[in-house]
Amino acid sequence: MQENHADRPLQPGDRAPNVVLDAITRQGKIAIDDFRGQKPLLVGLFRGLHCPFCRRQIAAMAELTEALQEKGIDSLTVVNTPIERARLYFRYHPLPNLLAASDPERVSHRAFGLPSLQFTETENEWPHTVSMDKVMSMRVDMPGELPEPMNPIAAMDFLDKADGYEVTADDKRMIATGEGQLVGEFLLDRDGVVRWCFTEVEEAGRHLFGVPAPREVMSAAANMAV
Asked: Its domain of life (predicted)?
């Protein structure tokens, strides 16, 4: 199958490509086309489970599953984690009603136009390259979880320790190839057309490590359900 590759993040009005992935929370495969013509779908494309920010983004998305289902909208979470590692994680950290798929090769991210940042010494060309000086100057502010605003690397270390998360060999492989993968959520109508999106690419990375406000997601869902 020829791989889809969008040159920019998909926007409202764009038709989502079909992507076929291994299911984590059930057996078999999951495809975007499984929902096309059937139900609207909220697709969350995240980094691997090694990323503490993504673990929180996944949990936040899962919290909306029931409310979205009441509006006839399904949800699909995609992680850049090998299938067995992902299944083990969700076995011990289950999320109710979670439908998840494994994409260690990041096929879905490329298909939806989410780039992977390359870390450099001096080059800053968002959203393709970022210097380590720029990274270290960033501050992640997560009241209630971080004791103070921290640079992303310090924040990841703090959150991993707080979660008791142990990085495995599978995680290390994903970090080596996709540590800079940008993530996003896309709400598709029943025809597979994007109607709303939230990505780390937007506005020079203003949404990095963040989650969309639940009211924003549900407002987009309500508008589509009309």
From this structure: Bacteria
CA distances (Å), origin 210, targets 72, 128, 141, 185, 189: 26, 19, 10, 11, 24
Sorted by where each begins, the domain ranges of the chain are 20-114+167-225
Instruction: Count CB neighbours of 57 within 10 A.
Output: 24
The residues, ordered by sequence, that sit 6+ positions from 11 with a Cβ below 8 Å of its Cβ are: 194, 197
Verdict on whether the full-model pTM lies above 0.90 = yes
* Per-residue pLDDT reduced to its tens digit, 118-152: 999 999 999 999 999 999 999 999 999 999 999 99
Phi-psi category of residue 203: left, alpha or beta, with phi > 0 → left and psi -120 to 50 → alpha: left
Helices marked H in the chain: 52-62, 65-70, 83-92, 107-111, 132-137, 152-163, 169-178, 202-205, 214-225
pLDDT digits (tens, 9 = 90+) for 158-188: 999 999 999 999 999 999 999 999 999 999 9
Fold of 20-114+167-225: Glutaredoxin (3.40.30)
CA dist 98 and 6 (Å) reads: 27
Q: Which two three-digit tokens encode residue 192?
A: 């597979």
The identity of residue 17, as a single letter, is: P
